[in-house]
Design a protein that fits this description.
This protein is α/β, with parallel strands linked by helices. The chain has helices spanning 29-38, 62-65, 97-101, 134-142, 197-201, 207-220, 231-248, 251-254, 262-268, 286-308, 333-358, 423-434, 437-440, 448-454; strands at 2-5, 16-19, 50-55, 82-84, 91-93, 107-109, 154-157, 313-317, 364-369, 373-374, 386-387, 393-396, 404-406. Strand 4 and strand 5 form a beta hairpin. The N and C termini lie far apart (50 Å).
Length: 464
């Protein structure tokens, strides 16, 4: 909780600033102190861009998304058919009509492979990131919070970030918030703990009263003789001022979707597309399908709001829904894409349109992929199983060619036909959008985990 405690409270001996368990992703005073040190890097190191990484947990199919293979045998070709896009000769799976109409604004990579068919979180946390959350590598350079506003630089959004009725974050097959050798101080801020987030981050005092209390705090926070000469106390005073600025900077508003224009909320809203009572209850994943429909569009809207306010890295995920085996847990491809295709199509399209209207298309990099793809051949139940040799990847934003299909897959969508793009390429592409590599080479304070990821070869769009 972040709050100002009124001196009229009998349980309080004096007015004081309390920054507790919520701590805005490490914005407690110790966290602020680390932030003030950790962000002291070479000028020009950061590019003032943001990344929204949509992790399609469970493993989406290459064929039913962006590479339909309708000329392949029936057991391989997209079970949902195909739809023409704005790009001549390029088709997508028919679940994506809105994205098809926007195909000139983003790039689809048809030669991406994740390396194995194991459920985990490898595009965001893997050996390519030194088993550290990709956004945490960024925040190690940028600091955990923006020094001017206190906005967390790295946020992880699960369904409960926007809807308290949804299931808790799914972490049984990998922790998206892992910080590895960087330590827990660089863990992404995850506003998914319940319904009191905005209330916990608000300050229920008028500005005049706050100014009076600021003076009171300054007077009461003078301790015993000699303390004023202690340099550590001077630092804590600065951090106290920063904490005030955090509240006044409107961070709580950024997380509050009720502040958004209702027309914009409606544009993003994916809830009407998949009614919970229309989802077959025989699937153990019924609740997750319903949660995805309710939350995905709002998560994308929240991601835009956070980036617009200065957050550098936002991970969005909706709890392991893309695993379409046609078993007791998961629907098959045709039914599964009915539950997931519409929300993805609407949420991502709304995000792209919104960025364009706000002039943010060259400021925010969008990445969409999962931990693997799915088998080229449909299984006996109408599903596709795990497959690590080919997986869908979509990107849009700064440094990404627009209206492009990069790479090529084999006719049966079993592997790349052109040079494969792997997770290290993707990680490097993402970090090079956020960090200036040339300046980074001169910064001796950068940890090896960051430099290894940044200096890996990026996706070679320039060679296409």
């Amino acid at each position: 909780m972040l709050s100002f405690v009124d001196s009229s409270n009998r349980g309080s001996r004096r007015e004081f600033l309390r920054i507790g368990s919520l701590a805005l992703g490490g914005l407690g005073l110790p966290g602020l102190w680390r932030n003030a040190i950790g962000a002291d890097h070479a000028p020009g190191l950061l590019t003032d861009r943001s990344v929204v990484f949509v992790f399609m947990h469970g493993g989406p199919s290459q064929i039913e998304t962006f590479d339909p293979k309708m000329d392949a045998p029936v057991e391989i070709a997209s079970v949902t058919g195909e739809i023409s896009t704005k790009l001549p000769g390029v088709t997508f799976g028919s679940s994506f009509p809105e994205l098809a109409s926007l195909a000139d604004q983003f790039c689809v990579v048809r030669s991406f492979q994740t390396g194995n068919g194991i459920h985990d979180v490898k595009p965001v946390v893997s050996s390519a990131t030194s088993n550290i959350n990709l956004g945490s590598l960024y925040s190690r350079i940028a600091g955990q919070n923006r020094p001017d506003t206190g906005m967390p630089t790295n946020v992880c959004l699960f369904p409960r970030s926007v809807d308290d009725s949804t299931m808790p974050a799914f972490k049984e097959l990998g922790d998206l918030e892992s910080t590895g050798t960087l330590g827990t101080g660089y863990r992404p801020f995850s506003p998914s703990g319940g319904g009191d987030l905005q209330q916990d981050m608000q300050l229920h005092l008028s500005l005049d009263r706050l100014n009076d209390r600021r003076k009171l705090l300054q007077n009461l926070d003078r301790i015993q003789t000699g303390v004023d000469s202690n340099p550590e106390w001077d630092s804590l005073n600065k951090l106290t001022h920063q904490a005030f600025s955090t509240v006044l900077g409107g961070i709580a508003d950024a997380f509050d979707l009720s502040r958004e224009d209702p027309k914009t909320v409606a544009m993003y809203d994916t809830a009407p597309l998949v009614r919970p009572d229309a989802i077959d209850k025989k699937w153990n994943n019924h609740k997750r399908y319903a949660d995805n429909g309710k939350s995905f569009g709002k998560l994308m809207l929240l991601a835009r709001r956070l980036c617009e306010r200065g957050c550098g890295f936002v991970t969005v995920t909706t709890n392991f829904v893309w695993d379409m085996h046609a078993d007791q847990n998961n629907a098959g491809m045709a039914e599964g894409m009915k539950y997931l295709g519409g929300p993805f199509d609407r949420g991502i399209s709304a995000f792209l349109k919104d960025l364009r209207q706000r002039g943010l298309s060259d400021k925010i990099l969008l990445v969409c992929c999962g931990e693997m793809g799915r088998t080229p051949r449909i299984n006996a139940g109408g599903g596709r199983d795990h497959w690590g040799r080919l997986a869908p990847l979509m990107l849009s934003g700064p440094g990404i060619p627009r209206g492009a299909v990069f790479g090529e897959s084999t006719r049966d969508a079993s592997e790349p036909l052109s040079t494969p793009v792997g997770i290290p390429h993707l990680v490097s592409t993402v970090l090079n959008s956020l960090i200036d590599g040339g300046t980074l080479r001169l910064d001796t304070a950068t940890p090896r985990e960051v430099t290894n990821a940044v200096f890996a070869p990026p996706i070679p769009f320039a060679n296409a």
